[in-house]
């Protein structure tokens, strides 16, 4: 389920005529489409959109199916807070569900979060992220300033906007009816010892609340293409070579593929995994490892932890032949 009914007051005037979730990250790709693609990539084929403000525009744009996902709609007549929207959604779903704030962009492993929660025994779980400081920080010691840090990540955790919820919390949602779930149901579950969390270090997270947030998100997506397994970022093209960053989510892999003309030189920046070669032989990937893949080399990258690769290749951007693809939907 995706919460899509926010008024987006701090993004006006844009949100006076366009739902916040339909604001574009880049031409033809909205915030909501990013989340739908994320759900699809996690193996979720049906999503309930919890709409209110300008909800009819979402239904008109996406219909009953979009990006390979079946869509159902629950429309609030009047926005009454996240709790009421989730209550209506859980009454419609009648089963355990992943729920997300529709204005959050996060490189989150939804599949791993869900699997961990299912084993935990908690009635609900919250994705938590370390809080980015809204300001630059001054370091002091011994009566003097010793350094400056530009908006560092602080050692505090905040609600990351993704949740796993059991259908068993429906009576508690019906007890409160209105308000924000963070101030009602979640504190009560925490007191009962029934609220868990999921924590993961990810390269990008933002809640798009202001024009500045939207600008930050659009900068992130200016050179980024989301993939079922993570994303690619084009860093630049110089002297006939392309420089890219590949981010592969833990537990995912790229297609088994080769390039007819493109030669690649790769270096592991962080994380671990394998490169699987034709015949199912494999080589380990760990920080600092470098390798050259010549044209015609059939290969697939597999991430055992979140994996970041730097790729330098000859400039043949459309040169890819997939021998075996593991995903049914891709962004063109």
What's the layout of helices and strands?
Blueprint: E1 2-3, E2 24-26, E3 29-30, H1 31-41, E4 46-51, H2 55-62, E5 65-66, E6 69-75, H3 82-93, E7 97-101, E8 104-106, H4 110-120, E9 124-132, E10 137-141, E11 144-149, E12 153-165, H5 170-176, H6 185-192, E13 195-199, E14 205-207, H7 211-221, E15 224-227, E16 230-238, E17 241-248, E18 256-258, E19 264-270, E20 273-277, E21 282-285, E22 290-293, E23 299-303, E24 307-314, E25 321-324
Parallel strand pairs: 1-4, 1-7, 4-6, 9-13
Antiparallel strand pairs: 2-3, 5-6, 7-12, 8-14, 9-12, 10-11, 15-16, 16-17, 17-24, 18-25, 19-22, 19-24, 20-21, 20-23
Helix pairs in contact: 3-5
Please provide a written account of the structure.
The structure is a single chain. This protein has 332 residues and is an alpha+beta fold. The chain has two domains: 209 residues, Spore Coat Polysaccharide Biosynthesis Protein SpsA, Chain A, CATH 3.90.550.10; 101 residues, Sandwich (Jelly Rolls), CATH 2.60.120. 20% of the residues lie in helices and 40% in strands. The chain contains seven helices and 25 strands. The model has no long low-confidence stretch (mean pLDDT 92).
